[in-house]
Amino acid sequence: MNRLRHLFNVYGAVLAAVPKFYTAYRAWVWMEFVVQILAMVVLYFFWQAVYASGGALGGLTFQQTINYVMLAQMLMPLVENRLIFNFGWMLREGQIAIDLLRPMDFQARLYVDAVGNLFLNLLVKAPLLIMAVVFFQVQLPRDVTTWLVFIVALALGHAVMFFFDWIFSCLAFYSTETWGLSVVRVAVVTFFSGAIVPLQMMPHWLQTTANLLPFAQSVYVPVSFLSGVTPSSAAAQAWLIQLAWLIGLGVISRLVFRRSLRKITVQGG
Amino acid sequence: MSIIHVQDLSKVYRIVEKDPGLAGSFKALFRPRYKDILAVDRISFTIEPGELVGYIGVNGAGKSTTIKMLTGILLPSGGAVRVLERDPYQQRVPNARDIGVVFGQRSQLWWDLPLIESLNFIQRIYEIPPASFKRRLDEFAETLELKALFGTPIRNLSLGQKMRAELAATLIHDPQVVYLDEPTIGLDLLVKERIREFIKAQNRQRNVTVILTTHDLGDIEEICQRVIMIDAGRIIYDGPLSLIKARFGKFREITLETASPIGLFALPTGAEIVQQADQRLTLRFDRTVTTASQVAAAIMNQLEVADFSLAEPDLASIVKQIYSGALHA
Fold first, then answer.
1. What is the interface size between A and B, counted as CB pairs within 8 Å?
2. How confident is the model over A219-240, as pLDDT tens digits?
3. Which CATH architecture group holds B48-245?
4. Which residues in chain B have Cβ-Cβ distances shorter than 8 Å to A8?
5. Torsions phi, psi of B129, nearest 5?
6. Per-residue pLDDT tens over the stretch B106-117
7. Considering its fold, how many domains does chain A have in total?
8. Rg (CA), chain A
9. Phi, psi at residue B127, to the nearest 5°?
10. A264 touches chain B (CB under 8 A)
């Protein structure tokens, strides 16, 4: 009980701090809005042209595809995080010394921070979702179950991505070239997470590859529930797979970080 | 029972040696050539609760590396550190709860937010009871003159204000050990004075142990009873400040002002001229060879002296002496 109150105090403070910094990115949030509205227009007409000859693609109807691609491109930036830039900056500036000296788990702190940001982003993106429904024929599920399935899948998928990024970001301990690394990461993750096209539409060997990588867990899995591509009856199995990824990557991320920390040299002073 | 225990502590940095240019970068990538740098070399000391210790040395002597190992950020390459009965690296989080650290070159405060936001955050993560938090806040508002600054974003604070805010943030959870890594760097004399007073008062009232690294010997002279001096990773002196002065400060300087321009005079035994102007003469003498009165008397016999003063050597000149090898001799 005391332990619980302690965790609530400490990590609650981290969570409470998130909105205070969020306003700093306000201009960035608006820019993203404009870009995403443009993307919706392009996606809509592109897929309309693709489906003009009628029929289904990869077993998906036009409606399912539109739901999927619109929601996926909205969700994509949400599971993306700036962890590697954070690490790079903290190591370069030596600021990591300050953060390591806080009386809390360094990784747990950044995870709570990421969850807070995800939640805020979802709130801010709500108008975009309404636009998608009103102007671009996106159909959202009407039953509570599907929404719950989606929310759980999103939370799990977000954690999977967080742990992957954590492992990846530890490269910052070994290389100062974090920008180049992150460009490669964004390209690979965007494609294999299913943020551009649903996995069904990929050739078989690409689908297999995507399934062997953790990225689909963070975009494809939750979005396919919300867009009606996957029925919510498949939820239990999907969650278990996500959980397995989460635990596996979570354990590895802690080991890798502990190893990397031994290398730390904290610049300056 | 000592609060900090350091035994044969060493740190070796392994760096990749790189030839200049792009070709060099590639070579370093595929066949790295390593070079080991011994930053801290088997140092040992213990610190008792409530001590005020000055940890000094030139740039690159190993001061900051030692502090980072004591705080638990850096893994030692050899030897052992115990702080409050713990291994600070293995038990970083419990250790962090009981210590406070100021890095003079970086900040623990949120740049864009008012100071009070950072302090409230610190209250929650260190789980400081509200009553004692408020008491400390009131105290610091007074002693560090922070009252008017609580609502100000850090980026709008002056350097001196920022350092006062850092000290408040570092001491508000009542740590038992405080590491101050160059806390007065770049500050003006008045602010330095106030910060020194504050540190001394905290030590007096709460018996907090302070380890201070600095280049400003004024800090050491005003705050510390004990000095640990490090050079090239080795401790070259560990003892009271008074002893270091007695041991190395055997020279005194005497400055005499004369009523009329100085003519020819015989130099007293054991003395040498440091500076000579029209009506002003500064001499240095070894006080193990002669005394101030002997020197003064010898000059006064020859010249009409209007005024004279005697200067104690300051720590700066002593340190210079030690660095230049007086200790090894």
1. 81
2. 999 999 999 899 989 999 999 9
3. 3-Layer(aba) Sandwich (3.40)
4. none
5. -55, 135
6. 899 998 899 999
7. 1
8. 20
9. 50, 55
10. yes
